Recover the amino acids of this structure.
């Protein structure tokens, strides 16, 4: 079982590309992969909803929620949205990847880097059939922490 704690703040690093989930500073809407720096744009508060696998993921920087544009399918853009958006957080089922999968609730579509896990900075985060992330607990996030 994923070791996510309710109301804790985490940074999320992709197991393949090594970049972290980051709220774009260009538009404060897009979600991209950037070299991990543990800044506030990479700090995500996990809020439990119902059962142990169901979560809302809130940006520590903007107060908006991790969500999607459109319907869940391969290539759908991951963005921040005003209203809570439900995710399922589970242990990875991807071979040789130890971490978690963050899936749109009730689907098999998870967060992943576009272009087959491209590790370049500013790579878009999209939905795909597989994607594994490692979480780093930032506890109660403070600017300049770590």
């Amino acid at each position: 079982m994923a070791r996510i704690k309710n109301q804790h703040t985490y940074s999320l690093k992709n197991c393949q590309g090594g970049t972290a989930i980051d709220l774009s500073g260009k538009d404060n809407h897009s979600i991209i992969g950037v070299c991990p720096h543990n800044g506030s744009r990479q700090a995500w508060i996990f809020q439990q909803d119902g059962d142990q696998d169901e979560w809302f993921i809130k940006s520590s920087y903007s107060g908006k929620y991790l969500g999607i544009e459109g319907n869940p399918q391969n290539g759908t853009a991951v963005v921040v949205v005003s209203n809570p958006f439900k995710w399922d957080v589970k242990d990875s089922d991807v071979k040789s990847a130890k971490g978690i999968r963050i899936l749109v609730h009730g689907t098999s579509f998870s967060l992943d880097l576009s272009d087959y896990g491209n590790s370049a900075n500013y790579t878009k985060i999209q939905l795909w059939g597989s994607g594994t992330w490692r979480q780093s607990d930032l506890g109660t996030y403070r600017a300049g922490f770590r």
